[in-house]
Amino acid sequence: MRIADITLNSTFIKNYNDIKTRLNTLQTQIASNQKIQQPSDSPSDCASLIQWDMQLAQSKAYSSNVDTASSYVTDTTDTMQSIQTEVSSVMTTLNNLSNTTETGNYSNYADQIQQSLDSIVSLANTQSNGKYVFGGTDNSTAPFGYSTDKSSIDVKASDISGSQVIKTSSSTSQKINMSGTDVFGTIVSQNGNIDSTTSVGDTVNNKTTIYDKSGAAYTLQVNYTKTAANTYSMTYDVLNSSNTSVLTSTPAAQTLAFNSTTGKLQTVDGKTPDQIQVNIPGSKINFSLDISAVKEASGTSSVTLSENQNTDIFNNLMSIISTLKSGTAPTDAQIKTISDFNDRILDNIAKAGNVTNQLTNTQTLLSSQQTQLSNLVSGVQSIDAAKSATELSNLQYLLDASYKVAAEITNKSLMDYL
């Protein structure tokens, strides 16, 4: 059967166009090193690529968070180590002081401790990337500073207890800071159980002694009044030696809700339990009240309050300096406060080290995740250079062959007979 010339021409043109299209596509893929140039090239692969790219971008964002946090934690750790060095120097000075009977030299010891105190205050106001490392979430002002009359060192920021948290995955967060309260602050902790059979309207209360910047004693009283099943109204007050409140205004009662199964404190005013900041500038009292450990359980109510320190390291050192300048050696209680703070700062350094380890492990996991996602993207999108070069050569050969075939099947013109 004879095949018409028009059929041959149509078939040739179709094949020629197919080769040219494949050749152009391959050249574009080689130039861009990407198989898929537009969604229509492979809708399913394109959908996977979009998903992987989103996951990769998110993972890189978490990595950036971790990098920034790691630098911040390193600065915090270095600062605490420097503070611990100064505290160790004070302890050495006090030890040397105990081995001398020359009271005339007390002023020299006071000067040495003053230098360490000034360094500790300066270190307590250290910044990292524009943030005060011990300022909680308040970066508007330095956390600590001397009072106007230079008689004490006070908290200058509005709240140094805040936590700085970063996201390390869609469902995981990491606290990265050591707040000023964690490192330097006085924390009064509530422990023990409230009898779950307590009648509505009954009150459970307890007291403890707290101290102002100069070491004067006050009474902290905390009351829990039952208002409903597993629900209490909590109030507190600070009283002076005359049993008179020193609070400028009565704080609002807070509603505590306990878990009916575990007995643990579940919410305070509908929120996750957090430390309550008590700041009474007029009496130079500043502490945090932590009630998160109190529970509700059957049996006699037994609640206790305890504080981690009588006075902060700054004002204890100021008191020691004043005592030495008056020609009197510091008391055993004052020296023990320095030793206790040294243990506390070492413990916080260890905690910061654990955070660093967690961030390092997180970064390792994120890097592995990014490698896997990049491999998935590469497997779908990247071309095989050697294979593509061979295919390009074959297509070019086919195109050249097509030109020769075209010369054979093209209709002869009058010129062919001249």
Compose a concise summary of this entry.
By secondary structure, the chain is of the alpha+beta class. It contains 7 helices and 16 strands. The chain has helices spanning 5-32, 43-98, 106-124, 180-183, 313-325, 332-381, 385-409; strands at 127-128, 131-132, 144-146, 153-155, 165-169, 172-175, 187-195, 203-211, 217-228, 231-239, 254-258, 265-268, 276-280, 285-290, 295-297, 302-307.
Could you please describe the fold and organization of this structure?
There is one protein chain. With 418 residues, the protein is α+β, with helices and mostly antiparallel strands. It has 2 domains: 59-184 and 312-382, Up-down Bundle (f41 fragment of flagellin, N-terminal domain); 186-308, Tick-borne Encephalitis virus Glycoprotein, domain 1 (Sandwich), CATH 2.60.98.20. It is 47% helix and 21% strand. Strands 7, 13, 14, 15 and 16 form a 5-stranded mixed beta sheet that branches. α3 (106-124) packs antiparallel against α5 and α5 (313-325) packs antiparallel against α6.
Q: What features would you highlight for this structure?
A:
Tick-borne Encephalitis virus Glycoprotein, domain 1; about 45% helix; elongated; about 425 residues; f41 fragment of flagellin, N-terminal domain
